[in-house]
Amino acid sequence: MLHLKNIDIRFGNNHILRNLSCDVQQGDFIVIVGANGAGKSTFFDTIAGKIKPNNGTITLDNADVTQLNEQQRSGMVTRIFQNTQLNSVGSLTVAQNLALAHYSRRRAKLVDGMKAMPREHAEQLIHKLGMDASILDKPMNALSGGQRQLIAFAMATQLIPKILLLDEPTAALDPQAATKLLAYAGQFIKQHNITTLLITHDPHIALSMGNKAWILENGIISKQFGAEEKKHLNPDKLIGQIDYAQIAL
Known about the structure:
Blueprint: E1 2-11, E2 14-24, E3 29-33, H1 40-48, E4 55-60, E5 63-64, H2 70-73, E6 77-80, H3 94-104, H4 110-114, H5 119-128, H6 145-156, E7 163-167, H7 175-192, E8 196-199, H8 203-208, E9 212-217, E10 220-225, H9 227-230, H10 235-238
Parallel strand pairs: 3-8, 3-9, 6-7, 7-8
Antiparallel strand pairs: 1-2, 1-4, 4-5, 9-10
Helix pairs in contact: 3-6, 6-7
């Protein structure tokens, strides 16, 4: 389905991705872990079309999309960021944000996005998230981070994308909000068989979600684990843990 071959990304003297090749199959849910600076966000930027590789090719459903930009790939690739403010328009209401998402992949104009989507449809979406319909009239920037990320997920999946990129979506959330988001997202992804890539720093998430886990380090995917292999991995050894013995208390 998605194939990256010999991808090189350089920013000046910084070599971020190094001859990276990988295959993502239809229905895969791949969790990607790695240290800061390993190239995880750049990897997602490359898939989304925000960055074009210096070398290499990207194919999606047997079509070469290497030269397509982010906007041109938006109908195929959807991304949710860890920064909740990047996933929605804070000054607009929840209903208006849902309307923007509703129209965004239908080649509509911005004015169409400002129209309210059918209230019944919006209420159905909100109820599925476990929220009251009254939240539809509140501005997004008045909501908690957990609420914004749940709504961002609903916005991103109103039309099922070919590829869903989850870029550390729980990084700014407290444990309770993170659990709610991951539980809802995991169930939705499984129900609709969405091909998904999730970046996380949490090794426990890496081993509890998805059918594959990849380790990204030094600009390459250094290790790949299947569903059965994941069952036998120690989360504390997957990408390292804090050595409390070295911390002076």
